[in-house]
Write a structure and sequence with these properties.
The protein has 11 helices and no strands. By secondary structure, the chain is mainly alpha-helical. It folds into 2 domains: 60 residues, Arc Repressor Mutant, subunit A, CATH 1.10.10.60; 150 residues, Tetracycline Repressor, domain 2, CATH 1.10.357. The two termini are 41 Å apart.
């Protein structure tokens, strides 16, 4: 099998960087237009013209108009699942997921700090206003929740050594997905109600902790701790 030359590798790297830049440009332009005028009032043709690309190019990077606004859906879902699969030895599934849901404004590894920055909070509130006002984006949230539920089912089954068709596995996955959605609904409702950041943080933490604790009590046989690493066991 041959190997690629340095020039080929450099060309491949440049191409990937250009693709990433094009995607960012389209996403940034679309977000600006959506935030200014509302999601349903902006067409893909307008986004394409403002970004200097064709509508076909947009579809090369995004599967739908909703993907343009909620372009981090897959990333957020991956963070939620990664909290479980990458948890430390002895940490249970609910403890790992609960820590992510309580310690971060958005469960992607970012803390609560932005909630206390007026500019960032205003931008987040406007994002939620646009999201709440669009039936298409509201429907997309339901699809996201179902995808998360399916992914959680597969992860829980693998972690617990059970079948993904096991009724208990499916039920636990549904309850954890509902917890994530309840958390988001609480966050959105309180931010849109213009409650103080500290109050929003306390409220979201409280509802997440309550829901996670109840799931943990309901599924002690599935809420397994991560095993110790081979190195730790040997030591």
């Amino acid at each position: 099998m041959g190997t690629r030359s340095g020039d080929e590798c450099a060309f491949q790297g440049l191409r990937e960087r250009k693709k990433a830049q094009t995607r960012r440009t389209i996403s940034d332009v679309a977000t600006r237009l959506f935030m200014e005028r509302g999601f349903d009032a902006v067409t893909l043709a307008e986004v394409a013209e403002a970004a200097g690309v064709s509508v076909k190019t947009i579809f090369n990077y995004f599967g739908s108009k909703e993907d343009l606004y909620l372009d981090r859906d897959a990333e957020l879902r991956a963070h939620l699942l990664g909290a479980i699969t990458d948890r430390g030895p002895g940490v249970t599934i609910t403890a790992a997921l609960g820590a992510l849901l309580t310690e971060h404004r958005i469960p992607d590894g970012r803390g609560w700090g932005a909630m206390y920055e007026p500019g960032a909070l205003a931008g987040f509130r406007r994002f939620l206003e646009v999201w709440r006002a669009s039936p298409a984006l509201q429907a997309r949230a339901l699809v996201w929740g179902r995808r998360l539920q399916d992914d959680l089912r597969d992860v829980i089954a693998a972690e617990a050594g059970r079948s993904a068709d096991d009724e208990a596995v499916r039920t636990m996955a549904a309850m954890l997905a509902a917890t994530a959605q309840l958390r988001h609904a609480t966050l959105a409702e309180w931010v849109l109600a213009d409650r103080p950041p500290a109050e929003v943080e306390r409220g979201v933490r409280a509802v997440s902790e309550e829901a996670i604790a109840r799931v943990a009590r309901a599924f002690p046989d599935l809420d397994v701790p991560a095993p110790a690493s081979a190195e730790a066991a040997a030591g």
